[in-house]
Amino acid sequence: MNITEIIFLCAIQTVGLMVILSQKKFRTPANIFLNFILFTLLIHYAFYYFTYSNKAYQIYTPYFLSFTFISPPAIYFYCQTVIIGKLPSTRKLVPHLLLPIGMAALVYITKGTENEEVQRYTINSIQFLLASMLILYPLLVIHKLAKIYQLERFQIFQVFKYNKEKTVMIRLLVSMMLFHSLLLMTRAIFFCFKEQYLDFIELLNIIFLLVLSYVIAYHVITRPNIIHHKKKQQSLISFKQYSKSGLSEEKARIIAARINSYYQEEKVYLDPNISLKIVSKRLNIPAHHITETLNRLLGQSFNDFTNNYRVEAFKTLLQEKKYQNYSILALAFEVGFKSKATFNLAFKKFTKQTPSEYRKTLLQND
């Protein structure tokens, strides 16, 4: 099986996913953007199919580049729609489309020139700018989540440890954008200095896009809940769950910020006897408001929230020299866990590894 046949099969698979998402029961705001992302992926496949089948693909280059410019904003708005549960307003959409449209226009203008060298360097510069967009938009997504979770600047890259089930596709697309930007920047740099490696980098880019298609399909098949059902459409943070509560969204975020600050500054999670009642009394916040806030904003219970801090503290201690001779259980007690069973369950829940596996990985990396 040659590369064109593999590309064709991936294109068929992508079309299949688009058909599924086009069904009435899946026609949600988030899936509209996801379908558009799949469409841009299809454009990539078409471009590479024409390239490797030795057809006159040059005429399709402007179309290909035009759609690649739109894909970073599309992914960003997909993530934002998952977070807020509804389509963004036109006023918010338009500014993000101006740069892609401007770059697409530049490609068309350049395409009309007869100087091939100008064309090549213009397209290379645009790809470098596209790579910059693929870095900028993931940062915007991370910033959006950090704002919702009321995280400080030094904590923003911890956003994906919350609501893991609901952010599967967001994590995948953010990782994809960052990796794709690395490939495009590498290509742009090698274009300027070592053109003999361009074909190899282009092949890596194709492999990446093919893998992306299969990974999306795998997640859709194994985790069908990530395709938002029309009857079950929810935002990442569902405030309807407590519709009869007097706790507003704004107040919940203030409470979340206070709890996070309290845990970070006082390190109360190190106390094995810390409880919801104690935290409620010390912060002078009703216990049910704390429970409601943690559930609504972080998708966690009080115990999960506390154990998450303990697991992170355990991971930090593992990397400190003075604790290298400590046993895993001793370190678990050091960070506030009361029993081995509770620690093992919590650690596996938040890291998808056992403590022994995690420690072994650290030692191998050293």
Task: Describe what you observe in this structure.
This protein is mainly alpha-helical. It has 2 domains: 3-232, Rhodopsin 7-helix transmembrane proteins (Rhopdopsin 7-helix transmembrane proteins); 245-365, Arc Repressor Mutant, subunit A (Orthogonal Bundle). The chain contains 14 helices and no strands. It has helices spanning 3-22, 29-52, 61-84, 90-111, 116-149, 168-193, 198-222, 249-266, 276-283, 287-298, 302-318, 328-334, 340-351, 355-365. Helix 3 packs parallel to helix 5. The longest helix is centred in the middle third of the chain and has 34 residues, at 116-149. It is globular and about 75 Å long. The protein starts with a helix and ends with a helix.
